[in-house]
């Protein structure tokens, strides 16, 4: 079973169990262990998605909610490798959709390539960038909302009045904190649907 299938099956099991919110992260991690006990990458991703430190030591500092940093500099090859492995998204689509600019993941498509209203486009951008930063930059402590805002503004797809409201609507993104310290926690639902989101932007 590949990583994406493991994550989907584990998350479905947690949802069926109807557990309290504060137990879902631990339950999800345990479900992944049971489904794929030998799949180390899946366990690491489960820890990031669930926001739990039970499956390993965080890879960066969590002081003040600062993003974790990778041990080595991120390259586009590493970014594509990590996303392909974690989300089962075809590499060709990842290469067409994303690039790095000064170490920061950015979309390679323009706003016109994103379907729907400005609100729908902001949700797409939020999911793609948040999942990419968690998987490739190891930002387990949370992705800065400012990083999502910057990408929306760069693509001229930004509605200041509805930005936060729309990001909150993305399944699998949970907003914490306030002001400049607002972070997005990336949950399994956002990771498991990543490939479908990419396909909606770049159809086969």
Order of helices and strands: HHHHHEEHEHHEEHH
Major sheet attributes: 3 strands, antiparallel
Average residue-wise pLDDT:
82
* Overall spatial form: globular
Secondary-structure content class:
mainly alpha
* Cα-atom radius of gyration: 16 Å
Q: Give the strand tally.
A: 5
Describe the structure.
This protein has 204 residues and is mainly alpha-helical. It has two domains: 1-57, no CATH class; 62-201, no CATH class. Helix content is 53%, strand content 9%. The chain has ten helices and five strands, in the order H-H-H-H-H-E-E-H-E-H-H-E-E-H-H. It has helices at 3-17, 21-35, 40-50, 76-87, 91-97, 118-137, 145-154, 163-168, 188-192, 194-201; strands at residues 98-101, 104-107, 143-144, 173-176, 183-186. The strands form two sheets. A three-stranded antiparallel sheet has the order 3-5-4. It has a two-stranded antiparallel ribbon with strand order 1-2. Strand 1 (98-101) and strand 2 (104-107) form a beta hairpin. Helix 6 (118-137) packs across helix 10. The protein is globular. The model is unreliable at 38-43 and 52-71 (pLDDT under 50).
């Amino acid at each position: 079973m590949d990583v994406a299938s493991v994550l989907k099956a584990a998350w479905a099991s947690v949802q069926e169990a109807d557990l309290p919110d504060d137990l879902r992260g631990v339950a999800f991690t345990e479900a992944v262990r049971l489904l794929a006990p030998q799949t180390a990458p899946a366990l690491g991703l489960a820890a990031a998605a669930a926001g739990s430190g039970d499956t390993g030591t965080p890879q960066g500092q969590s002081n003040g909610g600062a993003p974790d940093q990778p041990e080595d500099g991120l390259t586009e090859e590493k970014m594509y490798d990590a996303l392909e492995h974690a989300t089962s998204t075809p590499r060709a689509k990842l290469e067409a959709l994303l690039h790095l600019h000064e170490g920061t993941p950015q979309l390679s498509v323009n706003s016109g390539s994103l379907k729907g209203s400005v609100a729908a486009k902001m949700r797409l951008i939020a999911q793609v960038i948040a999942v990419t930063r968690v998987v490739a930059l190891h930002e387990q402590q949370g992705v800065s909302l400012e990083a999502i805002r910057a990408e929306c503004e760069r693509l001229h797809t930004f509605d200041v009045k509805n930005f936060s409201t729309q990001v909150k609507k993305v399944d699998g993104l949970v907003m914490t904190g306030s002001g400049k310290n607002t972070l997005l926690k990336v949950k399994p639902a956002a990771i498991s649907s990543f490939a479908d989101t990419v396909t909606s932007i770049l159809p086969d």
